Amino acid sequence: MPCTVVTGAFWGDEGKGKIISYLALKDQLDVCVRTGSVNAAHTVWYQGKRYSLHMVPAAFVNGKCRLLIGAGANVHIPQFLKEVEATNVKNRIGIDQQASIIEEKHSIQDKTRAHLKGIGTTGWGVGPAIEERASRTAKLAKDIPELQPYLTDVTKEVNNAIDNGKKVLLEGVQGLMLSLFHGTYPYVTSRDTSASAICSEAGVGPTKVDDVLIVFKAFMTRVGGGPLPGELPREEAIKRRWFEISATGRERRTAPFNFELAKKAVMINSATQAAVTKLDILYPQCKGAKTYDALPGEAKQFINEIEKQVGIPVMLIGTGPEALDIIDRRK
Ligand code: IMP
Ligand code: MG
């Protein structure tokens, strides 16, 4: 803080939603800007309820936080309206006039274009919507009657907030290995997912960012096609309790934590600090731990090894699904 970028290290689903919801409450965030599009879901558990957010920023759990969707983002109107209702944030969410719109036809294109089959897209249509934006024929948020009450200049709001010392978080989605530029091309998403791209989508320049918080999961997962170094057979993933189903109902492939990929992700994001989520899945004795000292030796060793190899401190450690199941080593 004051301006922190939260970014994913691997193929998304690292637990950014949980980390952001924690920071929203703990650090009393003033502003949270979401980037990317509807293909990425951030899961937030709060007060016993599960939210799967494809549009609304994960900081919604703090009722005083201004929620914004950046100019670089791509808005799915029905999903946006549905989530605004479910999270009851109508009076504090804004969309940049220049955010682009994803339509039903894009989803159909996503599901029917032959070359996209092997990539295993989420089917929401984000790639085709971004193609249309690049063609300069896309609809923008400002063209849509239902979105008029939400329109704002996010670039002005967020830069003013930073200049006035407010606590601002730029919410990245997906992970570095899905980046159009730096990931496992062509098995990637349709945008850059790095910290720089998150800033660019929000309209904030690099000199205004104080911290880049990179989120690792204690093991790696991937949905869709493409390489996954060290991939485990499905039965082994089930045995280790790493097996997960995505928000869209797809099975996640799994592999152990990879230090080389972690180093690469830290470098390209210029990350200053790290979070590691789901440590309790790797070491069940960690469940619900609130202090580092309470962790078993092998879990501490794992965290030390990450710090040693990637060269930045692990400040936050997830030990359970709820926003507050976290070890906070800052200060
Ligand atoms: P698309 O982004 O829907 O075009 O999908 C391209 C690739 O990125 C596919 O392998 C998807 O499974 C993956 N992908 C896109 N968004 C996410 C995400 O939020 N979490 C995990 N994988 C994602
Ligand atoms: Mg996700």
Which quaternary structure do these chains form? single chain
Q: Order of strands across the biggest sheet?
A: 9-7-5-2-10-1-11-14-15-16
CATH-derived architecture? 3-Layer(aba) Sandwich
The CATH class turns out to be Alpha Beta
Number of strands: 16
The molecules bound to the chains, other than polymers, are: inosinic acid, magnesium ion
Tell me about this structure.
With 331 residues, the chain is of the alpha/beta class. The protein has a single domain, classed as Adenylosuccinate Synthetase, Chain A, domain 1 (3-Layer(aba) Sandwich). The chain is 28% helix and 21% strand. The protein contains ten helices and 16 strands. The strands form four sheets. The chain has a ten-stranded mixed sheet, with helices on both faces. α3 crosses α4. The longest helix has 14 residues. The two termini are 12 Å apart. It binds inosinic acid (IMP) and magnesium ion. The site of magnesium ion has 5 residues, from loops.
Task: Tell me the layout of helices and strands.
Elements: E1 3-8, H1 16-26, E2 31-34, E3 42-46, E4 49-53, E5 66-69, E6 74-76, H2 77-87, E7 93-96, E8 100-102, H3 104-112, H4 126-134, E9 151-152, H5 154-163, E10 168-171, H6 195-202, E11 211-217, E12 219-222, H7 234-239, E13 253-256, H8 259-269, E14 273-277, H9 279-282, H10 297-310, E15 314-318, E16 326-328
Helix pairs in contact: 3-4
Bound molecules: inosinic acid (IMP) and magnesium ion.
